[in-house]
Design brief:
alpha+beta, 2 helices
């Protein structure tokens, strides 16, 4: 799947601009904690082409919740 790594790098940059950081769990997934307390878990090597889009959408939803608090 071409472009997956570049898409993941782009996602990390976009998430960082919104206050999210990514770290790897012991199980190999990515933990995305937000500076205001939100938390998202996603696979680090997505096998589904929609995975990055779904991660981006979940981060946006969680960011909206954090801004309301």
């Amino acid at each position: 799947m071409n472009g997956l790594h570049s898409d993941m790098r782009q996602l990390r940059r976009q998430a960082a601009a919104l206050g999210w950081t990514a770290s790897r769990t012991n199980g190999g997934h990515l933990r995305w904690p937000h500076e205001m307390g939100g938390l998202v878990f996603r696979p680090s090597t997505p096998s589904d082409v929609r995975s990055i889009r779904n991660t981006r959408a979940q981060i946006k939803r969680e960011t909206s919740k954090d801004e309301v608090k």
